[in-house]
Design goal:
Chain lengths: 325, 325
């Protein structure tokens, strides 16, 4: 079976690719080819005879048509303009996050091969009264253009699945923490930065009050959940293909305290509060409290504490031994 | 102030136009011109110096641009491909219900005149477990392409309002009953037909079991609610511009019994059950039970009984005197 990752050059895309190649197979069958599509790939991207790299914009119709003509059985759709950029550039966000996604679905419909599609949606589809607990039936009320675009694609994926053109599933991802590498234009970028940067000896800031609750999931769990989503039988899901994942609810303060417990005050001393109106206007509309019954019933996994998440990041990055704890 | 009704040639559009001309003004100001845009208008459409008729497809960019260049202060957007047709012809539904609506919003954004827009959304945005009571925060889970398209436009209207391009408000309309005229391609067409047709001495059928609950509102109340929506101050609405109206929950059986009480068994004898799989597959996914707190708080009106709705229709149509009750 051919598998495609749209947005396969990003951190999550590459990590998902490595795991898929390691596992070698999914419930749908053995992975014979894994095609990654993205505008750029890092130089140290993995090498594997099953891997195909296609450097192209996700919105490029000819490229996507060519990829789909091979009739991949499974497509992970992670291609996106991140939240901060989509808020600042509405046209770009609409073009990539919405129109290119619709184009993907239309091509699947035209080529009539009914692929399974796992779509990366987001907590950003929610907004409004953040004090309320989000249930599986709570409506999407985005307070950002990014969230609006994600929610629209969720609706299309449900409708195109109901009509039998695709077999879709949309995962509403918590804020993925700790991301390695550099800060990016996602409005949630700081949630990773407050752990990663001080561990690298660099000063960093957070733009929201330290008691702000966030809803997070480690890269490791996110990857497991993407693969789990790809393995669930269509019959179990029925007509509603949208799943709120089971993120961990914690606070900025608790994350910093955890880092302090694992490392030392010299590390956490590098973190400070620097209010940012733009970031607050988006991040503070994301609800942090969920009752994700469906995700639990369907067997999706979760992290148990921010300490576990930080330790897992440090082990993955090989920086655990620097601290004797 | 110039007012525009997109889809102004339909039954609701024309009735809304008459009421607006009768009232002469809204909270936003005096109505100096009322422009109706539609693909067709009936021969007996009203005459008034303030009225302008534009015969054009709502998706025609040049026409809509021309209409918007006059910078109307208020736009009622009722233009749509109805549910049955949108389900049978996905391309047509997407083109009119979704893409043309997006084009309207984009033109408002480009022309930068921040019009108030009242959008006719629908109960069809809901679907799934119809036993549940729909709260204001319940998520849109359409089980039709029509409902999907309406839900997507609601999201856009919220986002474009939040960004300050428009001042939108989306009303989720119950099934409008009793519609005069002829049956149409709406999957809910029978809800009006079971009253209207026998009153005209014609046999008619309903496609769902008689105990099926429906969520209805009379044309009179719908018109009042459209005007009320146009009169509410933007500040009261905040970022969420979607409102579940307060429909009346009744059953097909109760509607027929009401008709029987008002008229005679000779009339209701003309109504029979004829199951239709296609219509059931859509109509039976529409939840009939709502707790529309926001609509009540905001002062939207509702009907009190199906008998009241039928009597109101008969009075409007001048057929009340035929029955001595």
């Amino acid at each position: 079976m051919q598998v495609v990752i749209l947005g396969g050059g990003g951190f999550i895309g590459l990590r998902l690719a490595k795991k898929l190649l390691e596992d070698g197979r999914l419930n749908l069958g053995e992975i014979t080819q894994l095609t990654l599509v993205d505008i750029a790939f890092p130089e140290d991207a993995p090498k594997d005879p099953r891997l195909e790299y296609i450097k192209a914009d996700f919105s490029d119709e000819a490229t996507i048509r060519k990829v789909l003509q091979k009739q991949p059985g499974l497509i992970f759709h992670l291609a996106a303009i991140v939240s901060g950029e989509a808020e600042k550039n509405l046209d770009l966000g609409m073009r990539i996050n919405f129109h290119a996604s619709l184009q993907l679905l239309e091509l699947c419909r035209t080529l009539a091969f009914h692929p399974r599609i796992v779509f990366a949606s987001s907590v950003a589809v929610f907004g409004g009264d953040v004090a309320k607990v989000i249930l599986d039936e709570t409506g999407a009320k985005p307070r950002s253009s990014y969230g609006t675009q994600k929610a629209m694609v969720e609706l299309l994926i449900n409708d195109y699945s109901r009509r039998g053109f695709i077999d879709g599933r949309s995962l509403r991802l918590p804020t993925i923490t700790v991301r390695p590498g550099k800060p990016n234009a996602a409005t949630s970028s700081f949630v990773s930065a407050i752990i990663r940067e001080p561990l690298n000896g660099k000063a960093t800031t957070y733009p929201v009050p330290s008691e702000t609750e966030v809803w997070i999931q480690s890269p490791k769990r996110v990857i497991q959940n993407f693969i789990h989503a790809a393995n669930i039988d269509e019959k179990i899901l029925g007509d509603d293909r949208v799943i709120n994942l089971a993120g961990l609810t914690t606070t900025i303060q608790e994350m910093i305290h955890s880092l302090d417990r694992i490392t030392s005050p010299e590390v956490t001393r590098l973190i400070s509060y620097e209010p940012d109106e733009f970031l607050q206007s988006i991040v503070l509309t994301w609800p942090p409290n969920f009752d994700p019954r469906r995700a639990n019933t369907l067997g999706f996994v979760r992290d148990s504490s921010s300490e576990e998440i930080i330790r897992s990041y440090m082990e993955e990055e090989g920086i655990m031994n620097a601290f004797n704890k």
